[in-house]
């Protein structure tokens, strides 16, 4: 599994920085988490974890690196528990995209959710079909859960 690249992290940071002030506030981070249906701890707890009320790009990158290093130095027992939690989180994330509940993510569903999150730009020229095709191992034109899981691990791990 390849690590998320710096360009992707920059793009994520820019999308999270809704007000364009060069900082990602906890409110902006919570906005994204709420949009994708993730329950988060309180703002105060998140601030105590992060250590401040907002992060600039370098702090955001350092925070990502520290989380990545922390994850790679866990014991086997903790890793197994994290994998179970990851699987549970992935199921929740999959359900966010699987709007009609049929067990597959179609091009229309992907575009709909990305649009709701503010991550879809009609002018970008990116085609949902080509995005899905990259991870669609059985070539049925949509993503099942295993294909979605592989996409997420290859994208964020």
TrEMBL record:
One of its GO terms (molecular function) is calcium ion binding. It comes from the Eukaryota. InterPro entries: EF-hand-dom_pair (IPR011992), EF_Hand_1_Ca_BS (IPR018247), EF_hand_dom (IPR002048), EF_hand_pair_protein_CML-like (IPR039647). The keyword Repeat applies. Keywords: Calcium, Metal-binding, Repeat. It comes from Fagus sylvatica. This is EF-hand domain-containing protein. Pfam families: EF-hand_1, EF-hand_7. The lineage of its organism: Eukaryota, Viridiplantae, Streptophyta, Embryophyta, Tracheophyta. Residues 4-39, 85-120, 123-157 form the EF-hand domain. CDD domains: EFh.
């Amino acid at each position: 599994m390849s690590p998320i690249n710096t360009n992707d992290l920059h793009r994520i940071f820019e999308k999270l920085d809704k007000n364009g002030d060069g900082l990602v506030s906890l409110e902006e981070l919570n906005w994204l988490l709420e949009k994708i249906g993730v329950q988060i701890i309180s703002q105060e707890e998140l601030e105590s974890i992060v250590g401040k009320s907002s992060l600039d790009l370098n702090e955001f990158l350092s925070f990502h690196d520290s989380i990545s290093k922390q994850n790679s130095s866990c014991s086997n027992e903790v890793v197994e528990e994290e994998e179970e939690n990851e699987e549970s989180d992935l199921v929740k994330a999959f359900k966010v995209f699987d709007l009609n509940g049929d067990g597959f993510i179609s091009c229309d569903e992907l575009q709909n959710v990305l649009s709701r999150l503010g991550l879809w730009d009609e002018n970008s020229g990116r085609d949902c079909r080509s995005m899905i095709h990259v991870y669609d191992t059985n070539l049925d034109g949509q993503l099942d859960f295993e294909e979605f899981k592989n996409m997420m691990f290859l994208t964020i791990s």
